[in-house]
TrEMBL record:
GO terms for biological process: phosphorelay signal transduction system. The keyword Membrane applies. This is histidine kinase. InterPro entries: HATPase_C_sf, HATPase_dom, His_kinase_dom, PAS, PAS-like_dom_sf, Sig_transdc_His_kin-like_C.
């Protein structure tokens, strides 16, 4: 009986252990399944209890795995933030376009700044800015540079666009990089004209200076009485003198003409200081009040943001404003309106508007080119010098509009 009792007890213990093992296995599976489901959903906000002796070691192992995954997830998130901040500080717009060619997976801060929009989620948004801009983003491909131009709230913008294919999360995407090259185009044009003018002035001055000097000397020689002159010489002297004086006068005029163009290549470095824009405008108004009164032209000023402060060379900016106002009067304007404000990019925008004779479409492309003028007595350097001054202030001067209603020149201080 005792042996039979021991056997029954042993069998019961074995059965209990077997049942416990089965139960432990089932619980273990459920825990592992739960953990895997959570990790698959990128969720690590769980923890298994470690108080019970029977499952303590196993739960500790699961919790350790959870900690490893949580640490890895945190490191990945920190890397994403690091690269995101780095991309937001580069001076190139970067956009990642989904494989459907329309959806935007990512764009950095510079991309939004260049495009002048608050959010960018689909290529269709670019159609509100320009159809050609949207088309350029769609068709740009690796190894091909696309260019697109459009008008933003203050001026004409030209951007250069390049693209590279990539594989992200097992999906084909297109990484598009683009830059605003408007200033570069203006700078290259200015540099080219500056080099040309330097060559022209050098060659012209070398040629004209001796002509002026010799003609003056010959004129003095003919005027003086000389016993060697015969009757024929005396009879021809007045004609020779008149011709030489004409040559001398023309030469002096040409020298003066060339000297005026030297100003294009010798603009003084700006001496910058802070001043209120309204004070500058008032000073310019006083300088041009006589011309405005004679022409019967009205002047008005509007400041959209209070106390706009410029950090620039006050004298040089005043020179630009005076030039633009005088041009407006000469164009027959009855009203000249200057408005100023600060745009979404923290740039100071000054529009000089007038209702005078519009600039022809043919001339609009040439008005900033040195030597070009639409005035009979103009030298063609006023707007060229004004644009160079703005370039030296890290800004720009552009013709934003000229039609039957209004002509608008825009100064942008970045």
């Amino acid at each position: 009986m005792e042996i039979q009792y021991i056997a029954i007890s042993a069998a019961a213990v074995v059965a209990a252990f077997a049942a416990a093992a089965v139960l432990f296995t089932q619980r273990t599976r459920r825990k592992v399944d739960y953990m895997l489901d959570a990790l698959e959903d990128k969720e690590t906000n769980f923890r298994f209890r470690e108080e019970q002796w029977f499952s303590r070691k196993f739960n500790k192992t699961l919790n350790r795995l959870r900690t490893i995954f949580e640490k890895e997830k945190s490191e990945i998130r920190q890397q994403e933030q690091y690269y995101g901040q780095m991309l937001d500080h580069v001076q190139t717009g970067i956009v990642v376009i989904d494989d459907d060619g329309e959806r935007i997976n990512y764009c950095n801060a510079k991309a939004l700044q260049i495009l002048g929009i608050a959010t960018f989620s689909n290529i269709r948004q670019l159609r509100r800015i320009s159809e050609s801009l949207a088309d350029a983003f769609r068709k740009v491909a690796e190894g091909v540079e696309e260019k697109a131009s459009y008008f933003n709230e203050s001026s004409r913008v030209t951007i250069s666009i390049t693209a590279s294919p990539a594989m992200i999360n097992e999906k084909n995407v297109k990484i598009v990089a683009f830059n605003d090259i408007s200033s570069d185009i203006e700078e290259n044009e200015t540099a080219s004209w500056t080099r040309l003018i330097r060559v022209l002035t050098h060659e012209i001055m070398n040629t004209v200076t001796p002509i002026a000097s010799l003609s003056d000397a010959l004129a003095r020689y003919v005027t003086s009485e000389s016993p060697s002159h015969g009757p024929d010489d005396q009879g021809n002297s007045p004609d020779i003198k008149a011709g030489l004086e004409t040559i001398a006068s023309a030469s002096r005029g040409l020298i003066k003409f060339v000297d005026s163009y030297r100003n294009l290549t010798h603009i003084a470095t700006p001496v910058k200081k802070a001043f209120y824009l309204r004070d500058l405008v008032e000073s310019v108004r006083k300088l041009t009040v006589e011309q405005f009164t004679k022409a019967g032209t009205e002047f008005s000023y509007e400041e959209k943001d209070e106390d706009i402060l410029l950090y620039a060379d006050e004298g040089q900016i005043s020179q630009i404003m005076v030039n633009l106002l005088k041009n407006a009067v000469q164009a027959g304007a009855r009203h000249v309106h200057v408005r100023a404000g600060i745009d979404s990019l923290e740039s100071i925008i000054i529009d000089v508007c007038n209702d005078g004779q519009p600039i022809s479409k043919e001339s609009q492309e040439e008005i900033f080119v040195p030597f070009f003028t639409t005035k009979p007595t103009g030298t063609g350097i006023g707007l060229s010098i004004s644009r160079q001054i703005m370039r030296m202030h890290n800004g720009s001067l552009r013709l934003s509009r000229s039609d039957g209603s209004q002509t608008v020149f825009t100064l942008i201080f970045r």
